[in-house]
Amino acid sequence: MKKLLNTLFVTQSDVYLSLDGDNIVLLKDQEQLGRLPLHNLESIVSFGYTGASPALMGYCAERNISIAFLTKNGRFLARVIGQSRGNVTLRKKQYRLSDDEQASARIARNFIFGKIYNNKWILERMTRNYPFRIDVDRFKEISNHLTSILQEVRKCEDLDSLRGWEGQAAISYNRVFNSMILQQKDDFYFHQRSRRPPKDNVNAMLSFAYTLLANDTAAALETVGLDAYVGFMHRDRPGRVSLALDLMEELRGVFADKFVLSLINRKEVNKDNFYKKENGAILMTDDARKIFLKSWQLKKQDKITHPFLSEKITWGLVPYVQALLLARHLRGDLDEYPPFLWK
């Protein structure tokens, strides 16, 4: 288990949650793995199917401690709450700010700042780790351009302008994306982003990774009581998890892009893992998706030090921490939403 921001994360999938006095007790095969006082918790997030005792759920409901249940892979199942007090207030604040484009821009610019900052440091790490395999001057040139865009994003208060800066940064970053493919270059290449449908093997993998990341982020937002469908930069569209798309921006490059590149460069996938449809779309085979999903779950278990909390957590918990930080900002507990800044 891991306690972060007054939230208890139970990441073992076969742990049963029970109540003993004013404490939550974690049990596995009737053996106690841990216990923690409930009086300073705001929420509990459990990854797995084992469940919780009715006594614990009742205790938490009376004291406005939410319990969220997810699958071990992070798919949102349900959230148990008591009387809708803080949750309603939080969502009403979210809806009000979403309707105000200037207020939305002030929040959205931090998502985009995080995205561009992280992409810049992906390029910087490439120059440090592979100076003899890439064009270092070209990478440095684009990194410097991203730095100049960051300065504009930081003071931007208009959504259209913010989208323009984000678009410029994406074009620059994509110009050297193909150079970060170091193996199997005849079969894996990137010229430009193609979504519907993906036109090459790399775009097929990127689309799948972004879908998984959006699902993880949407589950994190629902877990903390936010509406994943009401965003700030991505505006309302029926069926679109707009806030999840907002929040995942800062993780696209540093998690999804790097993950796809690692699968290619480590030769965990090859050209036989893809096939072409009549309309030109490139899709992953069933075997490829199994390889992808297995590696994705393993990646989520890797540990990092969170840049804002300065605590070690797994990559899989990053969307949940960012969702909690966003909720705290919307409640007024934080003056500004702190994006995930990787270096």
UniProtKB/TrEMBL annotation:
EC number(s) on record? Answer: 3.1.-.-
| Cofactor dependence | Mg(2+); Mn(2+)
Q: Which Pfam families match?
A: Cas_Cas1
Which UniProt keywords are given for this protein, alphabetically ordered?
Answer: Antiviral defense, DNA-binding, Endonuclease, Hydrolase, Magnesium, Manganese, Metal-binding, Nuclease
GO:BP terms for this protein? defense response to virus; maintenance of CRISPR repeat elements
Q: Does the keyword Nuclease apply?
A: yes
The EC class name is: hydrolase
A Gene Ontology molecular function term for this protein is:
hydrolase activity
Statement: the UniProt record of this protein carries the keyword DNA-binding: yes
User: Where does this protein hold Mn(2+)?
Assistant: E166, H234, E249
Assembly and partners are described as: Homodimer, forms a heterotetramer with a Cas2 homodimer.
Tell me, in a sentence or two, what this protein's role is: CRISPR (clustered regularly interspaced short palindromic repeat), is an adaptive immune system that provides protection against mobile genetic elements (viruses, transposable elements and conjugative plasmids). CRISPR clusters contain spacers, sequences complementary to antecedent mobile elements, and target invading nucleic acids. CRISPR clusters are transcribed and processed into CRISPR RNA (crRNA). Acts as a dsDNA endonuclease. Involved in the integration of spacer DNA into the CRISPR cassette.
Task: Give the family from UniProt.
Answer: Belongs to the CRISPR-associated endonuclease Cas1 family.
Q: What is this protein called?
A: CRISPR-associated endonuclease Cas1
From the broadest rank down, the organism's phylogenetic lineage runs:
Bacteria, Bacillati, Bacillota, Bacilli, Bacillales
